[in-house]
Amino acid sequence: MARVIVDVMPKPEILDPQGKAVAGALPRLGFTQFASVRQGKRFELEVTGEITDEVLLAARQAAAQVLSNPIIEDVVAVTIAEDDK
Fold first, then answer.
1. Which domain holds residue 9?
2. How many domains does the chain have?
3. Which domain CATH number covers 72?
4. Cβ neighbours around 44 below 10 Å, total
5. What are 59-83's pLDDT values in tens digits?
6. Using alpha carbons only, what angle is made at residue 35 by residues 43 and 68, rounded to the nearest 5 degrees?
7. Which of 13, 15, 35 is nearest to 24 (CA)?
8. How far apart are CA 52 and CA 81, in angstroms?
9. What pTM was estimated for this model as a whole?
10. Exposed (0-12), middle (13-18) or buried (19+): which is 81, by Cβ within 10 Å?
11. What is the average pLDDT score of the chain?
12. In sequence order, which residues have a C-beta less than 8 Å from that of residue 67 and are 6 or more positions away?
């Protein structure tokens, strides 16, 4: 089956406690290259049949209305899974 990937991230002005916790742990584990971390969500939507422009539009609408909370999150990407292109 083909898949559409939806990536959602907290808005920049929203506190990200999970990202902050990971950012604090990384240097203690020897990963000193990273200045900050933001944690988001990834959804994989399986599609029966081809991924058409209509399917991508429906995925964008679902992302905006169901998969994200527009008050605190941004939909940052709606893409076709690499192995489905």
1. 2-84
2. 1
3. 3.30.1280.10
4. 9
5. 999 999 999 999 999 999 999 998 7
6. 25
7. 35
8. 13
9. 0.87
10. middle
11. 95
12. 6, 8, 41, 43, 75
